[in-house]
């Protein structure tokens, strides 16, 4: 009789059974929520082409991307909301890159302007919209009395908005017109070079990695 009492069947009211059942339910619910979250996507804006500061953002410049961002969804500009008017980007956004909310700003807040520069020489083939270039100015040669003033760099890492390589004055490939975004600090020097007797040229500059540009 003593043995039969010790091996009696457990009851559902036993606390250990209730705790075990609750753990099983929590595990099932947690797995369901995890799978649901993993399969959910967020609609955000991505660039359809390279975006450059100073250009007004238009719907045609963007495309909708459905991505799984988990808790990062608020970091990017939602495609479910209308694109703000008269806005631009603070830095270069590569084609296909997700558009961070912090990268968009009213055009009036940008510290700089897009300037068209006529380049006397050829522009490297790697330079295109979205590239970064350094701008140099060389005083025009005045003949035998010229003092040989060396060229001076007047802009560092300017984003390229547009480039037209078919505007040479003396033949194909002998010049280009390039539109770059120039910061307010460098703007007076660029305008002075454009109004003065200087020959401008550009060279490609290293691009800034996206993760460094957002810091």
UniProtKB/TrEMBL annotation:
TM helices/strands, residue ranges: 15-35
Keywords recorded for this protein, A-Z: Membrane, Transmembrane, Transmembrane helix
Residue stretches making up the SAF domain: 42-105
Secretion signal, residue range per the UniProt entry: none
Top-rank lineage group of the source organism: Bacteria
Pfam families the UniProt entry points to: SAF
Keyword set includes Membrane: yes
Name assigned to this protein: SAF domain protein
């Amino acid at each position: 009789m003593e043995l039969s009492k010790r091996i009696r069947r457990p009851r559902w009211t036993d606390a250990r059974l209730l705790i075990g059942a609750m753990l099983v339910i929590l595990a099932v619910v947690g797995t369901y929520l995890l799978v649901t979250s993993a399969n959910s996507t967020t609609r955000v804006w991505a660039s359809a082409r390279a975006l450059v500061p100073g250009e007004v953002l238009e719907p045609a410049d963007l495309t909708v991307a459905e991505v799984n961002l988990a808790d990062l969804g608020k970091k990017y500009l939602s495609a479910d909301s209308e694109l703000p008017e008269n806005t631009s980007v603070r830095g270069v956004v590569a084609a296909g890159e997700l558009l961070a909310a912090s990268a968009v700003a009213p055009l009036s807040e940008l510290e700089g302007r897009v300037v068209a520069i006529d380049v006397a020489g050829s522009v490297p083939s790697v330079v295109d919209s979205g590239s970064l270039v350094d701008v140099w100015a060389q005083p025009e040669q005045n003949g035998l009395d010229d003092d040989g003033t060396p060229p001076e760099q007047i802009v560092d890492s300017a984003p390229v908005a547009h480039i037209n390589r078919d505007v040479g004055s003396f033949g194909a490939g002998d010049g280009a017109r390039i539109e770059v975004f120039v910061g307010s600090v460098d703007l007076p020097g660029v305008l002075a070079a454009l109004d003065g007797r200087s020959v401008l040229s550009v060279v490609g500059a290293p691009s800034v990695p996206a993760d460094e540009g957002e810091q």
